[in-house]
Amino acid sequence: MGEIASNKLLNTDALELFRLRFLSRNGLVQNLFGRLKEVEPEARKEMGQLLNGLKTSAEEAFATAKTRLESAKENSGTLGGIDLTLPGLPGALGSRHVLSLVQEQMLAVFRQIGFAVADGPEIEDDWHNFTALNFPPNHPARDMQDTFFVSRSGTEGDVVLRTHTSPVQIRVMQERQPPIRSLMPGRVYRNEAISARAHCLFHQIEGLYIDKGVSFVDLKETLYYFVRTFFGPGTEMRFRPSFFPFTEPSAEIDISCQICHGSGCNICKHTGWVEIGGSGMVHPNVLRNAGIDPDTYTGFAFGMGVERTAMLKYQIRDLRLFTENDVRFLRQFAAV
Ligand code: 2U9
To answer: Which residue, 17, 223, 262, 263, is most buried by CB atoms nearer than 10 A?
Structure first.
């Protein structure tokens, strides 16, 4: 009995004809089985085996042709199952990180009133990060618990990951004389355990204004302008006396709570006020250390955390979200 050629079954009509003719209940194979009784009894067994072989061949030919026709149908007009005539999928566009957006929004406010951005190294020497900023040699900020040391060779020879962006302001003052209106955004590092409220790496924006006759009034007016432009015209601001080695007098800056507007919530711990940063008049020792005469010039400085500002503006409750890169979080700021 010859091979049944499945490759002759080129379309579904031919396949159906084949099925009716050979494999259906009234088809040839079944008919031949029905006529087995006409065969001599001694030849019946052999004939039965031949008929079974024929039936299997016909079924296999049918199955092979059916599979081939179905897959040809699926792939018709395509290359390996891909329909090249369909329009392409739009490429998924990324978006700027919320911290970049907030940092840019903050800088834009100060740019409007004449501040220019300065840049500097994240790996600093002890002198720029601490000594020039009037930190005494035994100040706790120099402790291993607060600062990441790159190398240690005795206080002033230490190399650290900068703990604030102030060392860049020192570099600006060393390079040029006043008037100086400088903004310093960037990454800073602190040796802290990571939690919802603390991180070992965060971003700051500092401002420095040095000229003849700069007073605390200028500081207040500048920050008031920032707060109202950035957070909205109804925002209140207050100064709380504080202490930093590099400013005297010093003040912490609070704004009216953006979440509850004074009625009391967790964010403002039911006080109606939230802290956005610190500020003060640049200490005369700092001016002197950086080569500026404190008898001729005065200046103010301020520092704000970018994460903290973003958390207040967009009601983000966990600092870790900024660094975990969960697209469900990041995507929310795509249209901002
Ligand atoms: C020079 C002199 C003084 C910058 C200042 C602060 C107060 C301050 C914190 C805010 C939140 C850091 O990100 S934060 O944790 N900063 O409180 N920063 S005054 O003072 C300077 C800077 C440079 C030469």
So the answer is: 223
Q: State which residues form the domain around 60.
A: 12-83
Residue nearest to atom 18 of ligand 1 (CA): 303
Question: Which residue, judged by its Cα, is nearest atom 23 of ligand 1?
Answer: 166
d(CA 120, CA 185): 10
Within a domain: 7: no
Is the pLDDT score of 223 beyond 50?
Answer: yes
Question: pLDDT per residue over 62-90, tens digit each?
Answer: 898 888 888 777 666 656 667 778 888 88
Residue 119 belongs to domain with CATH number: 3.30.930.10
Considering the domain architecture, whether residues 34 and 132 belong to the same structural domain is answered as: no
End position of a domain, from candidates 83, 112, 134: 83
289 pLDDT more than 60: yes
Q: Is 2 among the domain residues?
A: no
Choosing from 244, 275, 311 the residue with most ligand 1 atoms within 8 A of its CB, the one to mutate for a pocket test is 244
How many CB atoms within 10 Å of residue 106?
23
Same domain, 67 and 109: no
**Domains in the chain, number:** 2
Which atom of ligand 1 sits closest to the CA of residue 246? Answer: 3
Smallest CA separation from ligand 1 atom 15, residue: 305
Sheet with 123-125, edge to edge strand ranges: 123-125, 159-161, 149-151
Among 27, 49, 83, the domain-final residue is: 83
